[in-house]
UniProtKB/TrEMBL annotation:
Belongs to the copper transporter (Ctr) (TC 1.A.56) family. SLC31A subfamily. One of its GO terms (molecular function) is copper ion transmembrane transporter activity. It comes from Punica granatum. InterPro entries: Cop_transporter. It comes from the Eukaryota. It is found in: Membrane. GO terms for cellular component: plasma membrane. Pfam families: Ctr. This is Copper transport protein. The chain crosses the membrane at residues 24-44, 89-109, 115-131. Keywords: Copper, Copper transport, Ion transport, Membrane, Transmembrane, Transmembrane helix, Transport. It is a multi-pass membrane protein.
Amino acid sequence: MMHMTLYWSVEVTLLVDSWRTDSWPSYLLTLLACAVASVFYQYMEDRRIRLRSMSAAAATPPSNPSEPSPASPLIPKLSRLRRVNPAKLASSVLFGVNSAIGYLLMLAIMSFNGGVFLSIVAGLTVGYWLFRFSDEETSAAVENPCACA
């Protein structure tokens, strides 16, 4: 039976039918696995953001005021699409992996077990504190280069 409200029990089925808990040790190991996956999610997000900021800094050409601005900046040139930037490719792969982990964490929370919910939130909090807390000062510059936003 699938629960549709938050419940508190050591009996939970998580993600697949074979991942069932029926005792305190198995339940606590499941909660630990959820917390570790949440910390890993924040670590991967930190790596992806750092890789993207490094590749953006390396790819930024020096500004030359004598050069004319491109006629259509929103349409990339075909030659730029053909080149494979390894940093951009790695950042895209990290984005995919991190998205998959994030969706799996969301599905785990959708088990509606209170302990699973709290362990994932605690893991995300600890992971943010360990890996991404220093991003607060730099994220505005990385995410949005416009000073007016």
